[in-house]
TrEMBL record:
Family as reported in the entry's similarity comment: Belongs to the cytidine and deoxycytidylate deaminase family.
Xref: Pfam families: dCMP_cyt_deam_1
GO function terms (MF aspect): dCMP deaminase activity; zinc ion binding
All copies of domain CMP/dCMP-type deaminase, residue ranges: 5-145
Source species of the chain: Echinicola pacifica
The UniProt record lists the keyword Aminoacyl-tRNA synthetase: no
Cofactor: Zn(2+)
Family annotation (PANTHER family): DEOXYCYTIDYLATE DEAMINASE (PTHR11086:SF18), DEOXYCYTIDYLATE DEAMINASE-RELATED (PTHR11086)
Keywords of this entry: Hydrolase, Metal-binding, Zinc
A GO-annotated cellular component: cytoplasm
Name assigned to this protein: Cytidine deaminase
InterPro entries found in the cross-reference section: APOBEC/CMP_deaminase_Zn-bd (IPR016192), CMP_dCMP_dom (IPR002125), Cytidine_deaminase-like (IPR016193), dCMP_deaminase-rel (IPR015517), Deoxycytidylate_deaminase_dom (IPR035105)
Amino acid sequence: MERPDFDDIFMELAINLAKRSHCIKKHVGAVLTKETRIISIGYNGPPPGTHNCDEEFPETGCSRDSKGSCSLALHAEQNAILYAVKNNASVEGSTLYVTLAPCLACARIIYSMGVSKVIYMYSYAEYKGLPFDEGVDFLDRFGVMVEKYQKEISFDDALI
């Protein structure tokens, strides 16, 4: 039996976490690791205890902000970082696996918290129709290692 790489294990987990999202627009999952250990996980959605978009707003989803993004939800990488910090886990020097490249706001948080590497599956710019991945460029500029996950993983959720 072939042993999978940790990159594959963590990205597959991020994909499965994305399937937990209640967002009707996009499902995104994230895994925050140090070396070969998971320190936190997250997926996009409203803060705990508020509501589930697919249940409360099944036709339209939450209201949108000026850029067309959900005005109520936290992004998957935000949820993973916040949960780690809430539970007194240091994210300094960690690696973040995420199914969608970080937006600029998330990139600023990732950099500020000391995450040292981001591995993403899909382009945020392509998803949003933007000319380039602002978050990836920001992280590159300020010394956070960023790489696009190169392997194909099949899944059956069209929103991921």
